[in-house]
Amino acid sequence: MGMTVKFLILLLLTGVLAGCATVPPSNINNSCAIFREKSGWYSTMLAAQKRYGTPISVQLAIIKQESSFKHNARTKRNYIFWVIPWGRVTTAYGYAQVKDATWDWYKSKTGNSGADRDNFADAVDFIGWYTNLSNKVLGISKWDAGKQYLAYNEGQGGYRRKTYLRKKWLMKVARKVERNSRRYAGQLRRCASSLDQGFWFWPF
Fold first, then answer.
1. Confidence band (pLDDT; 50, 70, 90) for 202?
2. 119 vs 79: which has the higher pLDDT
3. Can you give the pLDDT at residue 83?
4. Which of 32, 45, 97, 142 is most buried as measured by Cβ atoms within 10 A of its Cβ?
């Protein structure tokens, strides 16, 4: 087999693997299924939990709500005359749906200057960092996914001013995030031992 053919095959395989790495899990409602399919995600989230104290279940619930685990998720477009696309509703992007200014703040404070919002490990680290900060400045338990989500959505200043009380839709979403977190936690209790032993090693 010629070197050119081998090189083309290598490029093809690299592209396939990269594509699979960014495809959302098949079952985003089950934490065990997520980590069976995306084995590297468990160690990434476990590292964030150890570093910041934010439970994996809370991390998962926030990402599910924000992007449904899509690496390049964006907010809806604005339209002129309901037809002509004109920018986005916000600059939020990536797994954790972080705005430009907030991401720059995170990189400045953590020194993680090369972080990307469409990188799972970076997005997870951001969630851990932000929820830990909300715990410090607002006293919100890291296990309280609902209240953490309110601070995540409104910003810590908005949470302090209780702006969320004027948004019934947001309160409803926060309750949904809390339910998802509890479900993820219950599922993890049933498969954590297998995950910790590293039984599931898949290429993606």
1. very low
2. 119
3. 43
4. 45
Maximum Cα–Cα distance across the chain? 67
CATH of 25-196, one of 2.30.29, 1.10.10, 1.10.530, 2.60.40: 1.10.530
pTM of this structure: 0.82
